[in-house]
Amino acid sequence: MAAEDPSVSGVSGRYATALFELARDEQSVDQVRADLDKFEAMLNESADLKRLVRSPVFAADVQLKALTAVLDKAGIAGTSAKFLKVLTANRRLFAVADVIRAYRALVAKFKGEATAEVTVAEQLSDKNLDALKAALKSVTGKDVALNVKVDPSIIGGLVVKLGSRMVDSSLRTKLNSIKNVMKEAG
Questions:
Q1: C-alpha torsion 72→75→81→87, nearest 10
Q2: pLDDT digits over 105-135, tens only?
Q3: Helices 78-89 and 29-45 sit at what angle, rounded to 10 degrees?
Q4: pTM value?
Q5: Is residue 118 a contact partner of residue 154, using CB atoms and an 8 Å limit?
Q6: What is the pLDDT of residues 133-173, one digit of tens each?
């Protein structure tokens, strides 16, 4: 399965594929995805956790002990916790973000979903998110999961990446286009 999807390759793809196959066999695909989403959110919010995950200076046993405490406190258990501990024991915890991304791609393919990366200037309301999902579903014919990232530097509008397609309707891009046209004319 990993070889069929170019976004699921390398070390992270192999780990994600193994986790996905195990979760599928245990019928815990959604639970594992929820646990990994929770861990990723914690990772994004905590500089200390990021340092623990990425820094090679921590010995595997120290990293494992700290990770176990974090997982226990977060309520992440079962297959997800065991998997993260295996990553740690194998000195591959630094790749956890790529593994999570690859796992999501495998789950989406399994469920017949598509995933869109959406960048917005400010958080969208639920009504706007639903409208965006509906518009993307009409284009793809699949349910679309959104990974929304807020980036105020785009000023307004949004940037949508869906597979190999990208639509950039950000105000920043439009202003840059106008600037370039004015340079050429001037």
A1: -70
A2: 899 889 888 888 899 999 889 899 999 999 9
A3: 60
A4: 0.69
A5: no
A6: 999 999 888 888 888 888 999 998 899 998 888 999 998 89
Tokens of 147: 């990974």
Question: Which residue type sits at 45?
Answer: E
Coil, helix or strand at residue 148: strand
111 token code pair: 């469920």
CA distances from 78 to 32, 39, 69, 71, 116 (A): 9, 14, 14, 10, 29
Q: In a 3-state reduction of DSSP, which class is residue 144?
A: strand
The closest alpha carbon to 150, from 121, 174, 179, 111, belongs to 121
CB crowding 123-151: b at 16 or more within 10 Å, else e = ebeeeeeeebbeebeeeeeeebbbeeeee
Whole-angstrom Cα distance, residue 69 to residue 142? 39
Q: Beta-carbon neighbour count of residue 154 at 10 Å? A: 19
Among the listed residues 102, 104, 103, 68, the one whose alpha carbon sits nearest the alpha carbon of residue 85: 68
Backbone φ, ψ for residue 75 (5° rounding): 80, 25
Beta strands in the chain (DSSP E): 113-120, 143-150, 158-162, 165-168
Q: Are 92 and 15 in contact (CB under 8 A)?
A: yes
